[in-house]
Amino acid sequence: xxxxxQYYLLTLLxxxxxxxxxxxxxxxxxxxxxxxxxxxxxxxSVGAYLAGVLTLGPSTxxxxxxxxxxxxxxxxxxWILAALAGGVLAWFVGLFALRxxxxxxxxxxxLVVSIIAxxxxxxxxxxxxxxxxxxxxxxxxxxxxxxxxxQYGWFYAALTAVTxxxxxxxxxxxTASPWGRRLRAMRENPDALQSLGVxxxxxxxxxxxxxxxxxSLSGAILVQxxxxxxxxxxxxxxxxxxxxAVIVGGVGNNFGALLGAALVLGVFxxxxxxxxxxxxAGVAEAVQFMLLGVLILVFLWFRPQGLIPERRRRLxxxxxxxxxxxxxxxxxxx
Amino acid sequence: MTAAPLPxxxxxxxSGADALLAVTDLRVEFSGVHAVAGATFAVGPGTxxxxxxxxxxxxxxxxxxxxxxxxxxxGRVRYEGQDITGHPVHEVARHGLIxxxxxxxxxxxxxxxENLVVAAPGQRGATLTSALLGKRYWRAQQADLIGRASALLxxxxxxxxxxxxxxxLSGGQKRLLEIMRALMAEPRMxxxxxxxxxxxxxxxxxxxxxxxxxxxxxxxxxxxxHELAAVERCCDSVIVMAAGRVLxxxxxxxxxxxKEVVDAYLLG
Amino acid sequence: MDTGPGLxxxxxxxxxxxxxxxxxxxxxxxxxxxxxxxxTLAIGFGLVTxxxxxxxxxxxxxxxxxxxIFNLAYGDAMTLSAFIAYLADAAGAGIWVAILVGAATGxxxxxxxSRLIFTPFLRRxxxxxxxxxxxxxxxxxxxxxxxxxxxxxxxSYAEGQGKSLHLLGMILTxxxxxxxxxxxxxxxxxxxxxxxxxxxKALRATAADPELARSCGIATDRVSAAAWAISGALCGLGGVxxxxxxxxxxxxxxxxxxxxxxxxxxxxxxGQPYGAMVGAVVIGMASELAAIWTPSLKQVVAFVxxxxxxxxxxxxxxxxxFVQMDVAAR
Lengths: 334, 268, 330
Fold this sequence. Notes:
The structure holds three protein chains of three kinds. By secondary structure, chain B is α/β, with parallel strands linked by helices.
């Protein structure tokens, strides 16, 4: 295998890992808890920007880029801090975005926040270098390891894989727990859950913060590999892509989200590269986006649960022995 | 205010002092219309009180006001001597005052058993942090809850549906699930919004019987219901509402004896 | 929601009505009249923006009122109408015919969307929650279809901007006057329709309380078809007038305008046509006046109003007042 080809595969692999974490973040919010995070891409970007500036070193002003919060923190601090920042931002946004009772209204507020955020980053050039974005972000341990590009790529892929496993452990533990059940009930009918004594807004907030942190983590992993992040990387349309991935893969199923990350964000996106280009620049992309829209409609119509549906939890298997049941089971109805 | 009591009327629970739930001069106004315009009544512990009246009388709204999903523009709701007026829905529920919905509100893509288990208060592992403690922390308690829920399903004759998605149940079964789910929430008082709507006639009797038995076990209920036969069978007292006010209250027999009320609101 | 490759490279801000050529020079007395002049100019632009918003927001709110769907494809239906109107205009039909063509396109597209997409999905039991994704997918399809066919280049109506006229310190082009006239005529027409026709009364009843209307025996199917047609025509008019007011437009100007439309609708309680009229004027004026200080504030003002209202009164700020207004208008 040629080195270039290996490197291409590595890139796909790392993107897959990043997208998997991102899809799990969106899945636990939208698929499990029913929170429509239309600001998703903003959270990924916060992670990317923060991990970037925290490794770039202080901004001298003399360089081609200027930014705030510049520092040279050792790995894995930039990733951890990026995740924390995503959580804090989610908490702040959630304070008002989760207030409306209707979830489509919440989604509108998040969309507006996302657009305002990207406008701010674009116009406030001193924050994250405006339109051009931050670039030349160093990779963790790259200078110390002294490896070739491909060998280092394998190292980074391993780092990503370990993180993916850790995140899987987290999301699996949560979705399989009584809290996960509560979240699914919240997705189905928040009013009914509230009337059973659960503070739906608090639970949504916890979920939103968790999802924000995971999204930011995915951004941090991505940016240290590709080395740059600019407003062009996070147009609101990108959020739509992640929603397509989760809906196609399987709403509420972690393996479904993983499959969606592979199929939609991997195969579908990459396939464009191999299509013969036609028309003027941009037509192929427009057609691709149209197909994604059609794909969503097709799935919502024929298979709203996605390729790998949410698992039905057959709790009756966990029923204690009949002897332990109360004896007063005088059936009311036949 | 309320119309003068009918001769020989016994108030549901005497004065508000020994009542479990006391509602005083409750009002709410939407877009200039008084949906509830000064309702006053009390519900004694261990009784079933029916809330009847024509469409638009403000019955369901009264339940919503008590449960906290609508905020009253005036008046007081006292529960166990505590003022809960305008408290948020989940806080009211945590006091043991559980409300069911007029339209079935099952968690459709949860199984029937999950619908019940999720309703239990004080669950281990039902918060973000405790969920991280892992299965060993919450498994035993969950098994207990599954046992409790299964017993309830057996009582209501729905055992075979335990692992079905709640959305797959029939309309009547969904109503039963609604009541069972409320029972899983360890209520001290139930606010039932038309529990028999959509339940077939054979099952209706069974549900009524069941409500009576729950009452005998000490559970208090306030029930909005159009099915007068059921109200007659299981309600200790009945409150008649019309145009947002309490028209009269008494036993069903007394209400029926009042020709004016019957003409205006029960037959019409 | 902006979704398309075009946006991945450049994210321009919400289209802002272009100032007339001489808005910033020649007519301001630099020594004393500066503020006054800026102010009256802004009022003029505010009127135009309000007129466009009135058309779009009332259409949006009517759709929401009868369907309870947050239709994210609304902005792209506006774009499509403007493009079809452009074709008519380029063929030499003249601006008035082009405006009518735009309205007809909007009505047709909206009815088709509701008949072919929304209603079948709702019948199939798709949750309101998932309907947001359906409308988002539609928005993506429409916008990218327009882009694939029409390309990314900017277009202008053949008429250009027309002559500029001076009116009470405001400077408006003749086409901006056309926009205001279209808005006023449409609103008068809508008012008469809502108040004096059976379908209009049924429409208001359905928007106020769909369940109650259904139980009162109002044929909600027919009402909803009428509502989609009427609101679609308004959507088309909104699209054409917005395109007319921009010096030039491309494939996503409508979707960029959508959130401002939503802001106006939400300001007046979604579902309330009279509320949306007020919301449109308030937001149109507020954003143009804010632009006196910083042009970039224009869209921020609308967004802030939207977010604040969704926070404090998701049902709309003065729901009661607007319902009473509706009652009083009878």
